[in-house]
Amino acid sequence: MSDIRYAWGGFLVLAITLRTAREQAGLTQQQVDEATGMHPGVCSEIENVQRRPSNEMLRRLCTLLRMDYPAVLAILDRGGNTLPC
């Protein structure tokens, strides 16, 4: 289990934010899975709030999608009250 503290709202905001960032980057879910070394389908599971990413997985996603990792963690801790971008 991940050591990231998730509030439900924060996880939902994370899923929406990751999907938006992926789409703005012009990447498919499959391309994200491959570029981050995740198993096929993991990006879809995260975006559909079916899976919570580990710290390392989230760090790789943030790097790929050019998102500020500490800001994303702060959003999760606050329960999704603000967006990272």
Automatic annotation (TrEMBL):
Residues 18-72 form the HTH cro/C1-type domain. PROSITE patterns: HTH_CROC1 (PS50943). CDD domains: HTH_XRE. Signal peptide: none annotated. InterPro entries: Cro/C1-type_HTH, Lambda_DNA-bd_dom_sf. It comes from the Bacteria. This is Helix-turn-helix transcriptional regulator. It comes from Archangium lansingense.
